[in-house]
Amino acid sequence: MNRTPLIAGNWKMHGARSEAVVLARALTETIGRVSGREVVIAPPFTALDPVGQVIAGSQIRLGAQNVHWEPKGAYTGEISTAMLGEAGCTYVIIGHSERRQLFGEVDETVNRRLHAALRAELVPIVCVGETLAERDADATAAIIERQVASAFAGASSTQIAGCVIAYEPVWAIGTGCTATPGQAQEVHHAIRRQLVGLASDTTAGRVRILYGGSVKAANIDALMAEPDIDGALVGGASLDPAEFTRIVCYEETQG
Ligand code: PEP
């Protein structure tokens, strides 16, 4: 099944508005007209609006790094789906390992965020991944299966088909230590098999599964050659316009 590759840049807590606008302008120049793949950038909340204005009319889409599940209320420090929609977002990252590890995100809250995003017609990029200790204990398959099953609990096959999953081994994020294409493919393939059971063959064939964890210009081509790797969620390297441009313009080789 043909899946449009998706490369997403997670800027994390980098990019005051002026820096974010400069970066967005540079990317609009280089990859604003890219075809055959989708590009998403996820700046900090305060830069969503100005970055959205810079990329308007280009092929680059706007994503947020998190969202709360309630539509409004006394939730100090949180942001709603409507607020993200108003800022021009069409994608939202959910359950990033930094949220899970540093800010108490758990499977149940990932699931609530997913449903809120779906109700608001934002495309969720659901992050899953094992820690190094879990990999060393041979628990990778079980951890990923649990995270995927709980993230999508209560979602219909049609809803799942419109979601994106990012497999991001925690030990590879921001460490310079990438999973080998073979390691990533093995997990991606297992996720796709799980989706057959959770939804259907057709849905499993539609869901885009991104790899994340120290993706760089130097390793993207080999990763993208794997049959179940449909794109990348890029952290550090997405802040460098030349590097991110090269990642987006990865060379297609069939593995
Ligand atoms: C990420 O934050 O999702 C990520 C993959 O970061 P990095 O590319 O820096 O490892």
Describe the protein's architecture and organization:
The protein has 255 residues and is α/β, with parallel strands linked by helices. The chain has a single domain, classed as TIM Barrel (Alpha-Beta Barrel). The chain is 44% helix and 15% strand. An 8-stranded parallel β-barrel has the order 1-2-3-4-5-6-7-8, surrounded by 7 helices. Helix 11 (217-224) links the parallel strand 7 and strand 8 (231-234). Helix 7 (140-151) packs across helix 9 (181-198). The model has no long low-confidence stretch (mean pLDDT 97). Phosphoenolpyruvate is lined by residues 10, 168, 173-174, 212-215, 233-237.
List the helices and strands and how they pair.
Blueprint: E1 6-10, H1 17-31, E2 38-42, H2 45-55, E3 60-64, H3 81-86, E4 91-94, H4 97-102, H5 107-119, E5 123-128, H6 132-136, H7 140-151, H8 157-161, E6 164-167, H9 181-198, H10 201-206, E7 208-212, H11 217-224, E8 231-234, H12 241-248
Helix pairs in contact: 1-2, 1-12, 7-9, 11-12
The structure holds phosphoenolpyruvate (PEP).
Phosphoenolpyruvate (PEP) is lined by residues 10, 168, 173-174, 212-215, 233-237.
